[in-house]
């Protein structure tokens, strides 16, 4: 598979998929010392790049296949892509989603007209159920990443990048099953050996590094990541062959990296993305070395507001904007007020306060106060601890 197949997919998507914008990130550019741009697939129809591959795959079905309907499995983005493509093409669609799938993604999939079945605890569970449904009913399985048409459709992201940033030297893309990164590789073909591709996976759901080292797909172990869009247990055979053949490196990022990146994109790029959509930015912030100009794909923006609230809080902690303190004081009237006064003097905003009055390591006349405060960053956190200790408080970071 190469540029010809991707160009053919692009013709099918003309008037269907949005040509998403590319925005310069000055903050990331300053960090790496060269231009870093963001490919905003979070602004794509249905909120992610997944519409591209789903539509290309389904548009090439025969009339008889379309009449049997389609079935898919997804944590949310592929589900919405399949549901929207099915509505455009007049095809009935059933989508299996994990029972813990984000409610907004479930609701959007249903609103596009698909029947949603919630079952299993992971994308891999949902995929097994979808495969069984296909065998039982004759519905065509629209795999989220392991099909040449799907990969070609996702590759149109890479084709647009080449047109929008002709001198691009690195494309950074999130990796789950591998369809997006493999599509970019296909779009580059042999005509652009100067352009590198860097894949990024969540460290707690990373099947690709070991698989690439072994030369064949290896299932990951237990997966536990907020980045549900890339929480895939096994690389797809089709995308793996492309990524392995081009020697594409895949690095991992932590949950702290992901939450920090999501907060960074919201604050500095004014973009709302989901954790998997921020994986490329997380890699840059974590020190990934890239040749510039580099383009980071923001792969999706379908985030559950409740998850967004938790992730933002987590990101603030990871960025040093929240500080959890333990302060031991004498159990006397006025000591809490004095402590809060010292925190106010140091410029900290108190968010939460708690008391521990009994504990094996506390004296009878002691109380431990737990205080969560908002700060201006890591340097301010250090200043707060120094200030409290200078004022005679036995303070430590919780």
Describe what this molecule looks like in 3D.
The chain is an alpha/beta fold and 398 residues long. It has 3 domains: 3-48 and 148-317, Rossmann fold; 50-141, Rossmann fold, CATH 3.40.50.1100; 320-397, Alpha-Beta Plaits. 44% of the residues lie in helices and 19% in strands. The protein has 16 helices and 14 strands. The chain has a 6-stranded mixed beta sheet with strand order 1-2-10-7-8-9, sandwiched between helices. A 4-stranded parallel beta sheet has the order 5-4-3-6, with helices on both faces. Strands 12-13-11-14 form a 4-stranded antiparallel beta sheet. α1 (3-13) packs across α8 and α12 (255-269) crosses α14. Keywords: Lyase, Pyridoxal phosphate. It is an enzyme of class 4 (lyase). InterPro entries: ACT-like_dom_sf (IPR045865), ACT_dom (IPR002912), ACT_ThrD-II-like (IPR044561), Ser/Thr_Dehydratase (IPR050147), Thr_deHydtase_catblc (IPR005789), TrpB-like_PALP (IPR001926), TrpB-like_PALP_sf (IPR036052).
Blueprint of the fold:
Blueprint (H helix, E strand, L loop, with lengths): L2 H11 L8 E3 L1 H7 L3 E5 L9 H10 L3 H6 L1 E4 L3 H13 L3 E5 L5 H9 L3 E4 L4 H15 L2 E2 L6 H17 L5 E5 L4 H10 L7 E7 L5 H7 L22 H9 L4 E4 L1 H15 L9 H7 L8 E5 L6 H14 L3 E9 L4 H11 L3 E8 L9 E9 L3 H13 L3 E4 L1
Helix pairs in contact: 1-8, 1-9, 3-5, 3-8, 5-6, 8-9, 9-11, 12-13, 12-14
Cofactor: pyridoxal 5'-phosphate
Family: Belongs to the serine/threonine dehydratase family.
Keywords: Lyase, Pyridoxal phosphate
């Amino acid at each position: 598979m190469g540029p010809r197949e991707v160009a053919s997919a692009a013709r099918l998507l003309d008037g269907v998929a949005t040509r998403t914008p590319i925005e310069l990130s000055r903050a990331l550019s300053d960090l790496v010392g060269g231009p870093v741009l963001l490919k905003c697939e979070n602004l794509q129809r249905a909120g992610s790049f997944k519409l591209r591959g789903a539509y290309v795959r389904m548009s090439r079905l025969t009339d008889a296949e379309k009449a049997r309907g389609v079935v898919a499995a997804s944590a949310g983005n592929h589900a919405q892509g399949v549901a929207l493509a099915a509505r455009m093409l007049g095809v009935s669609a059933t989508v299996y989603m994990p029972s813990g799938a984000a409610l907004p993604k479930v609701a959007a999939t249903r609103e596009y007209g698909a029947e949603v079945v919630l079952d299993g605890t992971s994308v891999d569970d949902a995929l097994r159920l979808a495969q069984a449904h296909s065998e039982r009913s004759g519905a065509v399985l629209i795999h989220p990443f392991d099909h040449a048409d799907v990969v070609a459709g996702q590759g149109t992201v890479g084709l647009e990048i080449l047109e929008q940033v002709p001198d691009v030297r690195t494309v950074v893309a999130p990796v789950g099953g591998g369809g997006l990164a493999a599509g970019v590789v296909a779009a580059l073909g042999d005509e652009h050996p100067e352009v590198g591709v860097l894949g990024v996976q969540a460290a707690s759901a990373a099947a690709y590094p070991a698989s690439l080292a072994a030369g064949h797909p290896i299932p990951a172990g237990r997966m536990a990541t907020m980045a549900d869009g890339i929480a895939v247990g096994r690389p797809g055979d089709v995308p793996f062959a492309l990524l392995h053949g081009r020697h594409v490196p895949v690095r991992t990022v932590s949950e702290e990296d992901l939450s920090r990146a999501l907060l960074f994109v919201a604050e500095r790029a004014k973009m709302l993305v989901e954790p998997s959509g921020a994986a490329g930015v997380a890699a840059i912030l974590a020190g990934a070395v890239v040749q510039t100009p580099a383009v980071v794909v923001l792969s999706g923006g379908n985030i559950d507001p409740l998850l967004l609230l938790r992730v933002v809080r987590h990101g603030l902690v990871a960025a040093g904007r929240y500080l959890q303190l333990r302060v031991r004081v004498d159990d006397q009237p006025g000591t809490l007020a004095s402590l809060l006064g010292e925190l106010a003097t140091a410029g900290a905003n108190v968010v939460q306060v708690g008391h521990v009055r009994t504990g094996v390591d506390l004296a009878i006349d002691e109380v431990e106060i737990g205080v969560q405060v908002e700060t201006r960053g890591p340097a301010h956190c250090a200043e707060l601890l120094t200030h409290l200790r200078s004022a005679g408080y036995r303070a430590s970071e919780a």
